TrEMBL record:
GO terms for molecular function: DNA binding. Residues 32-51 bind DNA. Residues 9-69 form the HTH tetR-type domain. Keywords: DNA-binding, Transcription, Transcription regulation. It comes from the Bacteria. It comes from Caenimonas aquaedulcis. The keyword DNA-binding applies. Transmembrane segments: none annotated. This is TetR/AcrR family transcriptional regulator.
Amino acid sequence: MDTPATKKELTHRRIVETAARAIRRGGFHGVGVADIMKEAGLTHGGFYAHFASRDALLAEALAQAGRESGERIAKGAAARQSGGASAFRAMVDGYLSESHAGETERGCPVAALLGEMPRQAPEVRAAASERVHGLIATVRKALPAGTPASHAPLIASQLVGALQMARALGDGAEGKALLSQTRRHLLAQYDAPSRS
């Protein structure tokens, strides 16, 4: 039987969830401790009762962002699969959707933060590496039978790159076209029904 969370645990969770949104919205350097605490409705002075350092918060926030994004991807994929889509099509359609491109703060932390990940402190880089490996594992799990597992990192790279470029192009026709073209390209190459 689970014991109810303590007030300190609930507060800690609120800080991490706030930071998880903030890092995807503003990047690692756009996240200040005072701003996170204020957004979470807390005082700056209470930060060190929960975290040893800003980097410790960033590492936890990145892990939380990965969990949130993974759950969101899985939920969307399950809905698409219930409508008859293959696991691969469901994953690609969800990841390269216009809604995912438009919701940076709730989306994949790899796509939101990839360029900044190598320049972080070791504990944040380790959390970032876990997120990248998690995305590759998600792709690998969705691959059609018979597709070499070694293709998963290549596909993950295409997904992330297309999403980043579409975001950079904006929510107009050019960004939407890039998402659509990349979806079609990946599905033509890898989706089992498309190969027949």
